[in-house]
Amino acid sequence: MTILPSSDRKYRRNPRTPLLSPQKYDDHEVGFNGASYSGAVFNLATTIVGAGIMALPAAVKQLGLVPGLIMIALGAILTESSIEMILRFSRASKSTTYSGVVGDAFGVAGRTILQVCIVVNNIGMLVVYMIIIGDVLSGTWSDGVKHLGLVEEWFGQHWWTTRFSLLLVTTLFVFAPLISFKRVDSLRYTSALSVGLAIVFVAITAGVAIVKMMDGSMKMPRMMPELVNQASFWKLFTTIPILVTAYICHHNIHPIENELRDPSQMKSIVRASLTLCSSLYIATSFFGFLLFGDHTLDDVLANFDGDLGIPYSSLLDDVVRVSYGIHLMLVFPIVFFSLRLNLDGLLFPYAIPISLDKRRFFSVTAVLMGLIFVGANFVPSIWDAFQFTGATAAISVGFIFPAAVALRDTHGIATKNDRLVSWVMIFLAVSSSTAAISSDIYSIFISEKGVGS
After folding, report:
1. Mean pLDDT, residues 264-276 taken together
2. Which of 11, 174, 366, 373 is a Cys-bridge partner for 352, taking CB atoms 3.0 to 4.6 Å apart?
3. Alpha-carbon distance 87 to 17, whole Å?
4. Cβ atoms 81, 270 nearer than 8 A
């Protein structure tokens, strides 16, 4: 039997060893004394408020204003419950990663399935981010109508204003530097800026809606869903994955907690972040649907390309799209961080931490960035991407795995309320996911039948 040198033994790990521990940073990054409370709140809030906010007004359009806003609030409550259970079982199992918690309950197979779900979910989310950035910069098509992007409006249509060219430039000069950080706390300032830009978007949307409401030029939106046939009923369920995806942040809970000066603050950080994000979601959905009504697009950002019916409309359109485009560019690296960590755990479960292996760090980063770039150029719309990841991986990561860990209860700490909430989450997750997927298949079948006839 070969005896490993002490340095190799120090970093050699088995599949249940944390992918990233706080000690790794203390040993190798001089001057880092732990992340602050505010930095953690901004990083977690940035993880949550990504592209999901852009699809929420369209989801509320499907559900109606009252049920839509109730579902957004319910999503925040269930997300907090699921994260609280993950944190509690993490401490009981002495795990410092989400996959470690699931591995403690269900072994290597459970850990692997979770990591696959996180990888699929995060790749889907990042593809959505790039699609929206492409929409902002180079425009998009909706129902046969061309919605011009900012660069096209400013400089006209050229080869260098195409979606491919602009996304390539963004990847090389914006994403590449930001995804090169090896510590999530390094992104705290960009995260704070991204949250601020999301607030700017919400403030402008609310301001325009209020001005139009005061001058009487706005119609009241539908309070309840419009059910005209069986297809419209089943289509309501396609909004569930959108609502679930909007709150998914479970994959970054442990990386953020592991870097905190005081890990006991994590529960308060989660609550503060979810309160901030749900407030932004409700405001965006309410004022976005109020402003555009039944003309609300799948990506509400695409609505900001024409006359809003108020003075300085063109300027406000540009400010909204620029602010949110930059916001998504700053969200991208924090979601990419956990994606790279979990993919590395899948491919190299026994290797030294990826942050200590420059060649592996660069290789995994380059492959992932390439896949996301290709996906963003070929996936037709954010609704398609949300439906795929939201109805499968996101629901599993956000609700099914936390509930399953609580029901498994290998450490005997689950309360009666935990078990009740867990069964509710599993029922909602499985039923809504099945209905959403069935509705998508039904819609595809109907559209193909219509084309064929």
Report:
1. 92
2. 11
3. 17
4. no
